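Exercise 3.2. Students should predict the tertiary structure of the chain below and write it as structure tokens, then compare their answer with the key that follows.

Predict this chain's 3D structure.
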Amino acid sequence: MKKWIFVVLLCGFFGAEAGGKIYAAEQGDVTATQDVFQTIYDSVPLEEVENVLQELKDEQMDFSFQQYVDKVIQGEAELSLQGIGEEIKTCVSREFQVNQHTIYRLLLCGILSGVFLNFATSAYEKEMSQTGFYLIYFFVVTILLGGFLEASTVAKTVLDRVLVFMKALVPSFSIALTWSAGSATSMAFYQAALATMAIVEQVLVGIFLPLVQVYFLISIANPLMDGKFARMADLVRSLIRFGTKTILMVMIGHQGIQGLITPALDGVKRGTLFRTASSLPGVGNVFGGVTDTIIGSGVLIKSAIGVGGLVAICVLCIVPLVRLWVFTITYKGLAAFTQPVTDKRLVLVFQSAADSGRLLVHIVFMTAVMFLLTLTIIIAATNHVY
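Answer key:
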């Protein structure tokens, strides 16, 4: 109750500072309303979020968080799907150009392995062909290891970038949420966002990404071991996929319940307080007009910042996800095209690299979805002016 008394005093401060502007606002004065809106907007620190985003995003992505929030507030923000499509097309083309020499070398190695094993007739030739195959096998594994380590670095980098951006966004969004919904809702969101960031940092980055590396090493060694590690590789892959999905479901359930309860509690407290204050003779109408202006402005600013955060997360994740998908599709294509002429063990190695890439895509995608849902749930739950 003390917190809401503070809100009343704050509103009184606005009245004392603005003087006749409050009465003008009650009568529909646009200038006074804009003054209140600008005061609330200036209280939200967006410059730090903008600076962090500019340091983290790829140079090819032309996006300004603060400018986009301003456009959303003015009702002018639009997403150019054509521009996004062009950026994705450029990224795909660039990745294939960078990796084309690696693809040619792996195709040549696959064909040579088939030649060594299929055209050996005598026992001596078969022994020599096996030796040649092992040399090719280890050469292919060396190339794949370099490509996978690069893909794993891309996944870890984008996860770290999203975490840094969310650490900058959450305080600013919480301040805007306090103006629009209330302190309890703001605190609940802050705690939920911190919990999500901790899960991503400790579980997804700290445990699941190393597990993908373990899966890759087991999978590429498995063909030479006559499939002795096949079940272990399946176990690690199932653990990663099941673990990320379970975390996502628990997070959605927890935040969904909070999104239904805490804004309603804040709304009930605020509604009771406002009705009591509005019934006071002489100042009731003035108080009601000011509070409606403050809450309405807070809802608009909160929604604009939330939408800007959603777009910024997509901007941070889109290029790394495309790069990881190109890595996955490349080795999946190699496994398909070399299967008729290549030893099946090399085909399994190519497929293992593709499966490892899919796990990296899965982790990055699930992380982006967690943060997107964290913002979306609270935006949707607090878009009502009580």
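Discussion points: The first helix runs from residue 2 to 18. Confidence is low (pLDDT under 50) at residues 1-29.
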